[in-house]
Design brief:
alpha/beta; transcription; five-stranded parallel beta sheet; single chain; Arc Repressor Mutant, subunit A; Sig_transdc_resp-reg_C-effctor; five-stranded antiparallel beta sheet; Rossmann fold
Length: about 240
Amino acid sequence: MHIPQILVVDDDLEIRKLLARYIKEQGFRVQLASRCAEVRERIATNQIDLIVLDVMLPDGSGLDLCRDLRSARSRIPIILLTALKEDVDRIIGLEIGADDYLGKPFNPRELIARIRAVLRRGEDDRSAHGGKGRYLFEGFIADPSARSVVGPQSGSIELTSAEFDLLLTFLERPGRVLSRDQLLDLTRGRDGDVLDRSIDVLISRLRRKLAESGANHIFKTVRNGGYQLAAKVTYLDQHS
């Protein structure tokens, strides 16, 4: 049985020790880092299943590091730790590919809940969709078991875990108008705040990436309603 390994990145020694002890008590393996350079070293030499990443680090910004990892096509899920009132950091973090965020100070139990939720999304998708086939829409093929999207023009579309989860939510409910609250519940497994802009950010990112591959107007914004997938969806390779 694979035991997920969590990389905790924070420049505060006491916080690292506290989180390492608590995360280990919850049944995970833990790696620690205090600098951006150490993160790259840990990723190169260990199998990391999720990164808990502080935004403020001594040799650079956690936001820049997150952007660099996504640019290098790393799909390791990332949970950002941000100052409680720094909403701009949270939005930017989601824009550049973070899967979730948690404001400081926080209860370690909430961090564990977020870690489990992010890891579970990937596991649930692989098991639940393994025999259900792929989705065809606007010339794109989305494969839930491989968590991949291939475009009609430019080949593979690089999506973060959160982006793929959101796309899959729409593909499973073609034509339905989904509110922000519904999307937060379906993709993040927890109650959402109607003022939370994370869904808007993810929609914007998906629109941009799909448009760059030749598909415009995939998502329709419904006034006072939410969002709707405007493309026809065909199910491929379905098994009875």
